Amino acid sequence: MATGRLHYRIRDRKRWREFLGFLKTLRRRWPDQHLYLICDNFSPHKHPQVRAWCTTNQVELVFLPTYASWLNWIEAEFAAVRYFALNGTDHRSHAEQDAAIGDYIRWRNQRAKPKSAFATGSKIRHPDYPFKAA
């Protein structure tokens, strides 16, 4: 959020092992910081080995409530990736598609700005918003 830059990794599978590998990459990139990652409730994010590694490596997974993906800033970025890199295309291979996604993200990161006022007009940010516990 401090830079507005995206960090990504494309893999053939989305199992807990790949997610843990991504977390380890982030840990190497920022070795001395406590990391907070906003996650949905996808089961690989909650795997016991992922949770154990996070506990011992100063990585905190922050899970969004079910059906609240709209609270996650990255969802808007997914829409932009789809619009700028995937819609109206006919990629001949996964490698070509991956390259288009990477090109977009590099272009976007060159223009990135810090996310300092996210959803300022949203009613959920007000202290009197009626929170309903699940």
Structure report:
The structure is a single chain. By secondary structure, this protein is mainly alpha-helical. It has one domain (16-117): Nucleotidyltransferase, domain 5 (2-Layer Sandwich). The chain contains four helices and two strands; from the N terminus they run αβαβαα. The protein has helices spanning 16-29, 48-56, 73-86, 94-110; strands at 35-39, 59-63. It has a two-stranded parallel ribbon with strand order 1-2. Strand 1 (35-39), helix 2 and strand 2 form a beta-alpha-beta unit. Helix 3 (73-86) crosses helix 4. The protein is globular, with a radius of gyration of 17 Å. This is Transposase. Residues 16-89 form the Tc1-like transposase DDE domain. InterPro entries: RNaseH-like_sf, RNaseH_sf, Tc1-like_DDE_dom.
- Poorly predicted runs are none
What proportion of the residues is helical, as a percent range?
40-55%
Radius of gyration: 17 Å
Q: Give a short account of the largest sheet.
A: 2 strands, parallel
CATH architecture: 2-Layer Sandwich
Number of helices: 4
Main structural class: mainly alpha
Beta-strand segment tally: 2
Strand content: 5-15%
Q: Can you give me a brief rundown of this structure?
A:
It contains 4 helices and 2 strands. It has 134 residues and is mainly alpha-helical.
Q: Which keywords apply here?
A:
single chain, 134 residues, mainly alpha, Nucleotidyltransferase, domain 5, 4 helices, 40% helix
